[in-house]
User: What shape does this take?
Amino acid sequence: MVSSETTAPNGTKQQPWGATPKGILILDAGGQYSVMMIQANRPKFKSRNRSEIAAEEFAAAVKGTIANYGTWWVNEADKTLTRRADGALIPNTEGTEGKVTVALTGDELKLTGSPSVVSGGGTNVLVYRRAK
Assistant: This one.
């Protein structure tokens, strides 16, 4: 993941994953995908023992993370990619589909999404660079 920007309905722009977002999008040839996006500045847990982590710490970590997997397909005619989430960190995402416009320039993939609940109704632009 190179960058992430959201344009709110009122036109203001923000970087919901921070100036240096962390993330990966894997699209395999068989039509399966996996995606994870993480805010770079999430606070560390006080303990490394999972059973000792406070609910507030878990909540902060989850709010700064998106992770899901499922199937994907492309509509070349309208230059869109659709993903259907089979499993997700946020259970409400499971079984939903998301469609984005695709632009591929060299090793960079730009995904422009329609307004979403996750972005508060804003339009998301995510840029990924091909791993080598």
